[in-house]
Amino acid sequence: MLGDVTGKDVVELGCGTAYFSAWLAKRGARPIGVDVTPAQLESARACMRETGIRFPLIEADAADTGLPDASADLVISEYGASIWVDPYRWVPEASRLLRPGGRLVFLRNSTLAILCAPDDVDGKVQETLQRPQFGMHRLTWEGVEFHLAHGDWIRLLRANGFEIEDLIELQAPPDARTNPRYDYVSLEWGRRWPAEEIWVARKR
Smallest Cα–Cα separation from 14: which of 69, 82, 66? Predict the structure, then answer.
């Protein structure tokens, strides 16, 4: 869904250890990683020292990066800003950063998985709805996460100058295995319903 990233200016919002930006840099992109957490950025710098892959890292709020207007061809978020920052703050920032025709791509928990997730932080995603869809926004578990219904995502993206190109609802393949660190969704659940989704939008 990213296409050829060679020579593209990319901003990763909520980059964490910046492994995704490093992956992009290896493929010829010019990434900038943005994260508000100093410890995450120090881990990213340690990875840079180990791999020799270098690119700028900025300690900043993903909704207020301080980067210039229209400075990116691609803005991405892979479980960074896409769930940890209020979308009514970070989506306008992504739009500001993108040049006309630039793309926003973000990966997040699926709305369905969140609707089926119990309030218990250790609870696994259920096969029945656990919360109302109307009014979804700020949810508190171990920390604060932000999740919207699909209609709210569509309206928010359109209000900030985006045309939605795709919504990819990911299905666990037949040979998938459960990662013990992320076992909140069973294999059977992930084969029947999307646990994650990728949004692709282009700035008008």
Answer: 82
